[in-house]
Amino acid sequence: MKERHTPVCTICRSRHANRGIQVLAHVICEPCEKQIIGLQCDDPVYLFYLCQLKKLWEPILP
Ligand SMILES: [Zn+2]
Question: Superkingdom, according to UniProt (predicted)?
Fold first, then answer.
């Protein structure tokens, strides 16, 4: 069996992202995924996640 290296979550930089979702070349861990889904627009954390997510799309944006 080939050993897989543990992906690092793009949002929180933790190494438990192996059960998370993959977006393009990035991985978002399960806790972060749940956080994003449950975020409210007036939540201060929302802006943080928004900035982190922007990094995901920047390489493919024109
Ligand atoms: Zn994470």
Answer: Bacteria
Ligand 1 centroid–CA 1 distance in Å is 27
Which of 13, 46, 44 minimizes the C-alpha distance to 28? 13
pLDDT tens profile 14-61: 876 567 777 777 888 888 888 888 888 888 888 888 888 887 778 777
For residue 14, report the distance from its CA to the centre of ligand 1, in Å: 6
Q: Rounded CA gap, 41 and 14, in Å?
A: 24
| Run of H or E residues at 2 | none
In the block, residue with structure tokens 């956080």: 35
